[in-house]
Specification:
Layout (H helix, E strand, L loop, with lengths): L12 E4 L5 E7 L2 E8 L9 H13 L1 E6 L16 H14 L5 E6 L1 H12 L4 E7 L5 H6 L5 H10 L1 E4 L8 E4 H8 L14 E6 L8 H9 L5 E6 L9 H15 L2
Parallel strand pairs: 3-4, 3-5, 5-6, 6-9, 9-10
Antiparallel strand pairs: 1-2, 2-4, 7-8
Helix pairs in contact: 2-3
Length: 257
């Protein structure tokens, strides 16, 4: 049994990227299956869900890996120059070079979209999937589809637009590359051959990503064991204590297998 380290005592390390730059991550050793957290759009590994999972891993002696995509948090790169394919590549690098053994992926919002691609790319490494407010295909359905023609034309002409963010003082920078790259990674239009059990959690009051996205995802998952839990009045963050407890309960259930 590995030592039960205290939460937060693992410093940030960096994973060099081919062509320059780095991915920042934290990893604690522990029992398998390990846990790997994948954050959302413009979030980082210091958020409430990521740190709650670290506390859980510390208390149970379980291995845990969290990281920042390039252009996020402590990793290198400019956010507006990157897109989903880059962030999938980052997750794959961390899965292949940092995390060890079978993994339970925990994906929040955009992180659920990334996690689904990792599961399809590395099916033999998957022990489970937990999603929080899953947002697959959001670039097409929640950004492009909601732009008016004037905004679309400006994006085509200038390559980007800015939109106020509900989660940060700086606006979201939405690029044409983000939209076009997202189109090459869409999932909800076809069956998804998930090689592991899945637990999907979504708030009924999510104003950013409607809970119907998780219902559609559940319908597409070709998994023998997939469940959706709707959390009454839960918003997109799902960071209140009862919601965090629901996430940890789902992780503990899958880990106990």
């Amino acid at each position: 049994m590995p030592r039960l380290a205290t939460p937060g005592d693992f410093p940030i390390a960096t994973l060099p990227c081919e062509g320059g730059g780095h991915i920042a991550y934290r990893r604690r050793d522990g029992i398998e299956p390990g846990l790997m957290f994948l954050g959302g759009f413009r979030s980082d590994m210091s958020g409430t869900k990521a740190t709650a999972l670290d506390d859980f891993a510390a208390a149970t002696g379980r291995a845990y890996t969290r990281f920042d995509y390039r252009g996020h948090g402590a990793s290198s790169g400019r956010f507006e120059e990157l897109a989903l394919g880059d962030w999938i590549a980052d997750g794959l690098e961390v899965l292949d070079r940092v995390a060890e053994g079978p993994q339970i992926l925990i994906g929040s919002s955009m992180g659920a979209w990334v996690a689904l691609h990792l599961a399809l790319l590395r099916p033999g490494r998957m022990a489970g999937l937990v999603t929080m407010a899953a947002a697959p295909d959001f670039t097409e359905e929640l950004i492009w589809a909601r732009l008016d023609e004037g905004q679309r034309e400006r994006m085509r002409r200038e390559g980007r637009i800015e939109r106020p963010s509900a989660y940060a003082p700086e606006p979201d920078i939405l690029t044409l590359r983000l939209i076009e790259d997202g189109r090459s990674h869409l999932l909800l239009g076809r069956p998804i051959a998930l090689p592991c059990p899945a637990r999907l959690l979504h708030g009924t009051a999510d104003a950013d990503v409607p809970w119907i996205f998780s219902l559609r995802l559940l319908d597409r998952l070709q998994s023998a064991d997939a469940r959706l839990t709707l959390i009454k009045d839960g918003d997109h963050r799902l960071s209140e204590p009862p919601q965090i407890e629901a996430m940890l309960a789902a992780v503990a259930e899958l880990a106990s297998r």
